[in-house]
TrEMBL record:
<dbReference type="InterPro" id="IPR035906">
    <property type="entry name" value="MetI-like_sf"/>
</dbReference>
<feature type="transmembrane region" description="Helical">
    <location>
        <begin position="314"/>
        <end position="340"/>
    </location>
</feature>
<dbReference type="GO" id="GO:0005886">
    <property type="term" value="C:plasma membrane"/>
</dbReference>
<dbReference type="Pfam" id="PF00528">
    <property type="entry name" value="BPD_transp_1"/>
</dbReference>
<keyword id="KW-0472">Membrane</keyword>
<feature type="transmembrane region" description="Helical">
    <location>
        <begin position="265"/>
        <end position="288"/>
    </location>
</feature>
<keyword id="KW-1003">Cell membrane</keyword>
<feature type="transmembrane region" description="Helical">
    <location>
        <begin position="198"/>
        <end position="217"/>
    </location>
</feature>
<feature type="transmembrane region" description="Helical">
    <location>
        <begin position="360"/>
        <end position="385"/>
    </location>
</feature>
<keyword id="KW-0997">Cell inner membrane</keyword>
<feature type="transmembrane region" description="Helical">
    <location>
        <begin position="92"/>
        <end position="110"/>
    </location>
</feature>
<keyword id="KW-1133">Transmembrane helix</keyword>
<feature type="transmembrane region" description="Helical">
    <location>
        <begin position="41"/>
        <end position="63"/>
    </location>
</feature>
<keyword id="KW-0812">Transmembrane</keyword>
<feature type="domain" description="ABC transmembrane type-1">
    <location>
        <begin position="194"/>
        <end position="382"/>
    </location>
</feature>
<keyword id="KW-0813">Transport</keyword>
<feature type="transmembrane region" description="Helical">
    <location>
        <begin position="16"/>
        <end position="35"/>
    </location>
</feature>
Length: 398
């Protein structure tokens, strides 16, 4: 049995007014969206609040827990049918999901189940904060993830539109296509931009990992004077706005002949990636046992051998994590390459930016979906490496 399944506080039936009020607020919130879509937000609020409050009173006053399962299935069916009548198949799915939620929510509130896993001595304000904090975090997550969830299905649009067509909303297979992905792989402009990104990002990452790792190891030594100041300078590209860094690099590179060259773009992206490597490697070195390097030196190993044979294997997860962050930064960066690069160094983000300004095409959405997939895969790798690093340093019992 998991910790969340342990009942600490016994349940009880809450006052009908409290239950109906809370459930009505949830219904009004949902009704606002439905009503706005139908042309009357106020009517949606009123109808949603009244309907959900009535369902809550019916469940608590007449049905109780004996009919809980039947009531929940009935609520799912009710809202699913209403959604089907209002919005077709998508409305059926959304209505069914909301019916499941409101059926669960009524008994969760009405039977005081929100206190089951909480200590009984908590005040009402503490309980409210406990759940408000989680709702706020969930709302922020939804706010951040919604654009991605919108872009990905739109990339399969069979038409040259940036909106959901009636066929897509009806889940008609004719409304979906891979044509924009084919356009990406068949277009010479997109492929040249992809090649540039695949040339610039790996080399910039290699430079960032090399210099960032050496800097982190050096700054981890307690005898280095001015460590805090040096660290602040090295991670400043993460803090200074990109537009300022880009303008400064443009004027500097113009004077030394690096503006409009591959080398200039690579060096600029490496400068952006170094702070990520320094931070992740420094975090890995926090739990590093320095007696290992002293033991290696006592056994006759030179500093280079000690680094590659003793220190590097232990900090490798942090090095790889920093390298992945540096690669993502370079692969997705557009502001600096606009200043430092030229048409010959046009990368994928630059091509996407140009496409948005000059030729609106859903191919941009297909490319965005591919980049999102790459980023998710790389960040998943970073998380796995972080857990492995914690296990190596003995910080995690798993």
């Amino acid at each position: 049995m998991s910790t969340s399944d342990v009942v600490i506080t016994e349940t009880r039936t809450m006052p009908y007014g409290f239950t109906c009020g809370v459930v009505a607020a949830a219904g009004a919130f949902f009704g606002l969206f439905v009503g706005t879509a139908q042309g009357s937000g106020f009517a949606g609020i009123a109808l949603g609040a009244a309907l959900t409050a009535a369902l809550a009173y019916l469940a608590m006053a007449y049905l109780g827990t004996a009919q809980e399962r039947s009531f929940k299935w009935g609520v799912i069916a009710l809202f699913a049918v209403a959604g089907l009548l209002i919005g077709g198949l998508p409305g059926l799915i959304v209505g069914g999901l909301f019916g499941w939620f409101i059926g669960w929510f009524i008994y969760w509130v009405g039977r005081c189940r929100y206190r089951m896993t909480l200590p009984p001595y908590l005040t009402g304000g503490q309980v409210l904060w406990h759940y408000s904090f989680r709702v706020l975090c969930g709302a922020i997550f939804v706010f951040l993830i919604t654009p991605i969830l919108v872009v990905m299905p739109l990339s399969f649009n069979a038409e040259n539109f940036f909106t959901f067509t009636p066929e897509m909303l009806a889940f008609d297979p004719e409304g979906y296509s891979l044509r924009h992905y084919r356009n990406f792989f068949d277009s010479s402009e997109w492929q040249q931009a992809l090649r540039n990104s695949l040339i610039i990002a790996p080399i910039a990452t290699l430079l960032a990992v090399t210099f960032g790792t050496l800097a982190a190891i050096g700054l981890s030594q307690p005898h280095v004077p001015g460590r805090q100041v040096i660290m602040a300078i090295l991670i400043s590209p993460m803090i200074v706005p990109l537009i300022i860094s880009a303008a400064g690099m443009y004027f500097f590179y113009s004077r030394i002949g690096l503006q409009g060259t591959y080398l200039g773009v690579i060096l600029a992206h490496a400068a952006l990636g170094i702070p990520f490597v320094i931070i992740t490697v420094t975090a890995t070195l926090v739990g590093f046992d320095r007696s290992l390097t002293r033991a290696s030196a006592n056994l006759g190993a030179n500093p280079v051998t000690t680094f590659f044979k003793v220190q590097m294997p232990l900090i490798l997860p942090g090095v790889i994590s920093g390298g992945l962050f540096a690669f993502i930064t370079s692969f997705d960066e557009v502001v600096i390459v606009l200043f430092v690069g030229s048409a010959q160094q046009q990368t994928l983000p630059w091509q996407m930016f140009t496409g948005l300004r000059e030729q609106i095409s859903p191919t941009i959405l297909a490319v965005a979906t591919i980049l999102v997939g790459i980023s998710i895969a790389l960040l998943t790798t970073v998380e796995l490496l972080r857990r492995r690093s914690e296990k190596i340093r003995g910080m995690s019992p798993g």
